[in-house]
């Protein structure tokens, strides 16, 4: 990484020996937090106390908003959740000047096995949902990988997973939202009730109201995933296989790919099964001593036979396969974290909570990430895959690269397709230290953003965006969003536009 001068001796120690803090302090604290959370969530769900408490918690949100309404309304509103608790590595400057609304909505409210839905409060995590649904033989239709991703973040932002080529983005499996608006009223919306609001909420980043619950589609779950690995040493052949599998009439349930350099990668296709077959080995990747998933996948690429191979993975292990290493970001924090001895002795403590990593992150580390680190997901039509990879290689040269196909449906809202009922896109995820010659954070990212706009694609907004306001409105269709901000009472007084929350100048 680029050298950044520490501002104190303590910062020097934190930067140079960050792994020591992570291993001796953050990992044990994270483990205790996980145990407490599991116990607390289990008891609350079993006793069914969450539905009764939900109304009280929503009324608490209403009271805070009404207090703001009765004042001078000189500030705008945002959630009081500290920036260090969010999964994004950036800080939100607006939190310091806005009126913070406390929202303690952390529970699963109801599992409806008849209608195959689950109703969750916004701070419910993906790990919490999958843990609750597993004994019931159920799963979300789309389960974004990282344990700590929340329902609210995935609704107001976005979420994608290896089943998204069938079901779409996380927003497409949501059937109803409950929100508290800027006038303090509680509304529910669905495709049949307050439809404009329902379609405007995704990607709105809390600028239309406060989400208090979401009802989400479920699918039947099986015990294992039969995962087939297809290694390639030619980008064109890999892209063709990736497109072919994604666009099949009856595709596999799960599809993703990892690129390890510009020309080499592994395409993975998977399906739920109830039994382990004879055509592959059982691989419990969720064990504490297991090798990080992305390094396991790479072994299929460098194997001598270069043939497709099959493994059987427990379903929940598969859903959260990238959690233990934060995809591959943890290797920069704990360089020896994947060593067999470390995994055997301390793997049960992994991973440290992102929130604790952020809380103990000094300003020098933040500057380091800003100057010499890329965390971006760009969404482009699947036909643009090869040209996008070539450009990412030229501008960033960060590997591995995550590829995940998804259907973008022709629904109202900010994401539009060119024609038809749906269009297949690919999420290109780049996370790490750029090694491209001439890399410069702003100019390199700007060139990527321009390419994505030209391809009629989109940038995930949890990451830094450097677009101008006009460019941002060109990338995203604001027609319905603007209509809702004009229609909803006090909305413009209470919340900035999306651009005012996600642009790099205000989210650092």
Could you please describe the fold and organization of this structure?
- With about 500 residues, this protein is of the alpha+beta class.
- It is built from 20 helices and 17 strands.
- The strands form 3 sheets. It has a 9-stranded mixed sheet, with helices on both faces. Strands 3, 4, 5, 6, 7 and 8 form a 6-stranded antiparallel sheet that branches.
- It is globular and about 70 Å long.
In short:
The chain has 508 residues and is of the alpha+beta class. The protein is built from 20 helices and 17 strands.
Tell the overall outline: globular
Main pleated-sheet profile: 9 strands, mixed
Taking strands numbered 1, 2, ... along the chain, how are they ordered across the largest sheet? 12-13-9-11-10-15-16-14-17
Radius of gyration: 22 Å
Q: Give the class from helix and strand content and strand pairing.
A: alpha+beta
Helix content: 25-40%
Distance between the termini: 19 Å
Unreliable spans = none
Total count of helical runs of at least 4 residues: 20
